[in-house]
Amino acid sequence: MVRSGTEHTPDRQGTAGSPAPPDAGAPGTPPPGPPAVRIQGLWKRFGQQDAVAGVDLELPAGRFLGLVGPNGAGKTTILSMVTGLLRPDAGRVEVAGHDVWHDPVAVKSRIGVLPEGLRLFERLSGRELLAYVGRLRGLPGREVDDRAGQLLGVLDLADAGSKLVIDYSTGMRKKIGLAAALLHNPEVLFLDEPFEGVDPVSAQTIRRVLERYTASGATVVFSSHVMELVESLCDWVAVMAAGRIRAQGPLAAVRGDASSLQEAFLELVGADRTSGEHELDWLGGGTR
Amino acid sequence: MRTPPTTPPAAPVAPRAWSGRPAPGPAASATAVFVRLKLALLRGGLRQSSGRRAAFAVAAVVSLLLAASQLLVLIALRGHEHAAAVAVVLAVVLAAGWAVVPLLVPGGDETLDPTRLVMLPLRPRSLVVPLLAASLVGVGPVFALALAAGCAIAVAHGAAGAVTAVLAVPLTVLVCVALARAVAAANIRLLTSRRGRDLALLSGLFIAIGFQFVNIGVEKLTAPGGLALLEPAAGVLRWVPPASAVAAVRASGEGAYGEAAVLLGLTAAAPVLLLWWWEHSLTRLMTSPDGSTLRAVSAPSRRERAGSGPAALLPAGRSSTVMVRSLRYVLRDPRTKAAWATSLGIGLLLPVVSSVQGNRTLWTACWAAGLLGMQMFNQFGQDSSAFWMVVQTVSSPRDAYRELRGRLLAPAAVGLPYVTLVTVGSAAFLHRWPDLPEVLGVALALFGALLGTGAVASALFPYSIPQDSGYKNVAPGQAGLAWMSILGGVFAGALLCAPVVGPVVWLHVTGGHAWLWLALPVGVAYGTALALLGLRLAAPRTAARLPEILTAVSKG
């Protein structure tokens, strides 16, 4: 069953379009003030395809927020438009109450970004990369070097700090990218598939740092298609498919009666779980 | 868990041919399969695009025409007193080419990479003959055959010479092919590692600089009596395979049969040794851990703290941070390094070559300014998608101005002393001190103009530089943009120099030579003004187009 952005099951009706109030017992109760991100009527078209087709979304501040969806759902496109890396065709995006496209000074100093599929300045060492980014952000040199040293230590990169980023593994790249995104202590952190291709040890390190960061009242928005991860990390989720938001709200509300977020997600995006079951009946069970 | 065997299991009996048909027999099949694989790879490569087909056809025709003309020239050289020296040196150059080209063009022949065959149940020893046979397929071996035949014909006299030539020519080709295989196999770890790819990216630089030396060499050799210069080298090289085969042909023609036998024996020993080395490398490659493990061990240990060294002397701020980053890329990024080193090298070589050729003008020193100034073009394309990190930190035209100023200061910091040094050096070398002020003035005006137009072109016409290929400087579909940016920019830059060049010409024509020194201060001031104007024009456009620039430079 596929539901459009305006068609939702009754138990999630309240969560689409206008977000449900945060559940009282949720950890990290959001501070009063504007939402971390407010998106209104966001559109982006590539050629004949609507990558993002009229998205309205309000992400509360001070939470660990998950943006989930299958490959090609438009998660990266939305995050790129929210962080000023891609210009939308239509719509409005506010981060911490400031318009991304009209007030970039206020927005860019408040956000940290870890995009997926974009390079870093890989011919710099990890330490040099952080020093470079911190100084571009206008932080004093000594402060940058101190923060960089601490971040490298916490992210288990201290020994690799003087190695060129191009020689880093995927996990190390994600960690140095995260360090660069955290260096200026942003209010809102946007992470696109931060755990993609990362080994369990690095994933645990990243997770520990993110949990510490949100505990201080900051907001993390991250995209993923690994439901177990989202379920264990996030207290608020938005489900995307085919460029639209299918559901949004506190984790429990979006999960509804389903046994897991995975089940709820498959139902929301309309995945057919039975196709192909009988087509590979020759596979397995020894040589035949 | 099972431990993987140290050597792959025995060869399969009948690998299937690429056509889907089973190969005819176990013994001959591997050779046939690899020859067919080479042909299939050639065909597959050609099928990718009509442009590639056309390029292959043109390259093949040009190579064959070159081979044929060399053959004719060598036949014409028969009887010339220096024919033997020419033939011997040519044979060595041919072998050196076979050894070096696969290193510079690692993707040129996919069958050269034996690590692709590691997962197949084949023993390294059983691969040697099939891979060697596959190497003999292609335009390259035909070219080598024509050249080797030409060398042999140039020096063969009498029946003994002819008989030796019949042995010498195939041996020469075999040595070349085996050398290419052995060198490639011994270096494949390097070639497939990041450092090897970095080195391969510098190949353009070697070719550009090498071309200048070839230019000088050809000039010297084609002068009357120039070929005599080869004699001392040929005296030594005749003992080096495969040139020893050519020397053997000559020796047997002159009746020195003992010497001919020794020389031919040397040539015959070479492929045996090369094949042994190759098999040894193959075995090591196919039975030891791959390059990713080794690379970590050989990783450089950089101990410097960020912000230390000369960088610490610069004032704090975005521009100096960006400038230091740009200069680090000049040293560390092979593409940027190649572009800069080519500019610096050619900028220095052109005045030298020009003076060797007898031109006593100082104006060739302007090349240094022109080539270095062009490094300012497509600044953001050089970042590729890492430009997002810049986008995240640019919020206003002021930020963009500081960013561009840092990027401009990098070539300026190197270019100003370099252009001055080259011009002053040329003036000293050519004893043309009176021309120095006007030439330096125009050169610096040109440098400033190119830095300024480069900044504007970077903002208006960004394009991506594919990071995975050393031979493509533009992503597909953006070639027009790149040409427009560079040609338009260079043309505009040259045109912008008119206010300095025009008066200099006018003073020459009207005999006002006493005032020509004014070109220096005017050129410096005008060049600085143009560079600053370029920054002023480019900054607001950059700030306004950040997402569009990022999209343009992230392609490919």
Automatic annotation (TrEMBL), chain A:
Subcellular location: Cell membrane
Record keywords, A-Z: Antibiotic resistance, ATP-binding, Nucleotide-binding, Transport
InterPro entries linked: AAA+_ATPase, ABC_transporter-like_ATP-bd, ABC_transporter_ATP-binding, P-loop_NTPase
Domain ABC transporter: 37-267
Any Pfam family: ABC_tran
Keyword Nucleotide-binding: yes
Skewed-composition ranges (Pro residues): 19-35
Protein name in the entry: ABC transporter ATP-binding protein
The organism's taxonomic lineage, starting at the top: Bacteria, Bacillati, Actinomycetota, Actinomycetes, Kitasatosporales
TrEMBL record, chain B:
TM spans (from-to): 54-77, 83-105, 126-156, 162-187, 199-218, 260-278, 408-433, 439-461, 481-502, 514-535
Name used for this protein in its record: Transporter
Statement: the UniProt record of this protein carries the keyword Cytoplasm: no
Composition skew (Low complexity), residue ranges: 13-23
Keywords: Membrane, Transmembrane, Transmembrane helix
Superkingdom to which the source organism belongs: Bacteria
Record carries keyword Transmembrane helix: yes
Species, as recorded: Streptomyces meridianus
